[in-house]
Each structure stands twice: as structure tokens, then as C-alpha cells.
Amino acid sequence: MTDAYTHIVADRMQDGETWTDFTARINDLLDPGNAFLLSYYSEDRLFSDEARTVLVEPDLKEIPPLAGN
Questions:
Q1: Fewest beta carbons less than 10 Å away: which of 23, 25, 27, 63?
Q2: Any domain includes 66
């Protein structure tokens, strides 16, 4: 979850944007239930035993790469 979250947050950042403007625009990422991850991962995959121990790739849509990768 942490790896996916990092990539998605970085993808949504805009140069010169204030923290207040950024957080107002990313309410879905601030939801403590991490529901936004279910657009990338099926529930079975996201909450699987495998995903608790190793990095698993999304099965619904690709996670954006970090800049420079």
C-alpha cells in the first residue's frame, strides 16, 4: 500500500501548488479506508496474505511511475 500510495501522490502533485490546495484536491487519497486503491487493485489482491508480505502489482490498472523511473 505504501509504495502504491507514494506513486499516486507523486503523480497528482503539481509544481508550485500550496499544501492547502493540494489537500483540497486529493480528498480521496486522505480517506483512512484507502478506498482509492480499489481502483488499482481488486479487494482480494489488495488484502491478500501475499500483499501483506511482498510488493504485489495491481491487477486492475497500472500505478503511475515515479518521475525519473
A1: 27
A2: no
- Mean pLDDT of the 39-48 span: 94
Q: Which structural domain range is residue 12 located in?
A: 2-53
- Given this model, what pLDDT does residue 43 score? 93
Q: Round to whole Å and give the CA distance between 20 and 22.
A: 5
b (16+ CB within 10 A) / e for 51-61: eeeeeeeeeee
* String of DSSP letters for 4-16: HHHHHHHHH--TT
Residue 35: strand, helix, or coil: helix
22 belongs to a structural domain: yes
Torsion sign (Cα): 6, 11, 14, 20 = negative
CA 26: distance to chain centroid? Answer: 11
